[in-house]
Specification:
- This protein is an alpha/beta fold.
- It is 24% helix and 26% strand.
- It is built from 10 helices and 19 strands.
- Strands 3, 4, 5, 10, 11, 18 and 19 form a 7-stranded mixed beta sheet that branches.
- A hairpin with a 5-residue loop joins β8 and β9.
- The two termini are 24 Å apart.
- The model has no long low-confidence stretch (mean pLDDT 97).
Length: 360
Amino acid sequence: MSTDYKFQGWVGHDAKSADGNMKWEAYEPKKWDESDVDIEISHCGICGSDLHTLRSGWKPTLYPCVVGHEIIGKAVKVGSKVEKGIKIGDRVGVGAQSYSCLKPDCDQCASGEENHCQIVNVPTFDSKYPDGSKSYGGYADYARVPSHFVIKIPDSIPSEDAAPMLCGGITLYSPLKKNGCGPGKRVGIVGIGGLGHFGLLYAKALGADKVVAISRSSTKKADAQKMGADDFIATSEDANWASHHSGSLDLIVSTVSSADMPLQEYLQLLRVNGTFIQVGAPEEPMPAFNAFALIAKSCKMGGSTIGAPHEIDEMLALTAKKNLKPWIETRPLKEANKVILDMSAGKARYRYTLVNEAHA
């Protein structure tokens, strides 16, 4: 198949790109494979990972890079070996992962946990495929992605809503589902931002008996209640919040991406046999805590990262069935440099989706 389109997007060349200095340029996509899909991008969500990567916050970035891993668009080229019956013209998406080994003897890939593949795991941007090609993200006109990680989007979900679900949504849905969120459970979500707001929506949709929003202040209380929160804990407004709510939650999912968190007090909120899951990824080490916070109540502590393709399909099906509506603000792709600054300043309420007006 020939193509008459060009791969170009907002390219970051150094850590200063996070200050609104990305440049619109052409770049070379991954080498074509017959299992690939080329996507004409109409929408791309903005994720905190984009900012961490642009500024080399987690690790040195493989500049030049194009960030964005909440991609929605139209399949415009499909290889002869594509999976899932994807056809030219289908509305599809891709989240934060674009490749894993998929070997039958890989414990993770064989059991539907491709996102935890320990052999080869290629994020949608700032990484390299086994053939040496670089992965480039969705602040762009087109994306080339192996079909195993391309997701068909249900007709009833608008593209601007579906985009941030592909990383932000699944980052919360997966640990909630895996750790038993549902009837009979009391669930807390720490941090009511782009990730946390998905936590409230999905905890309620999964049928938790009680959903508690946990934030520093009560500024977002009214919003959290509209998203499904039954209770709200403002940690800076009640000096004894941890003792007042001690032993009240079965499951806590923390979206906090700063190491400046009262971790010991969060653990105090757990009931016997409770579980604390960290999904936010601070650039600094996590704070210390007393081991008895886990030992005394037989509590568990863990982490979670995105989700496998089948989990994304499941999440989108639930979203369509329950008619869930994330809180999204659309912004033009051409203003990406301005939007990442607004994102960094905490202005999103609660997630930005870039719209590629040429393809929307």
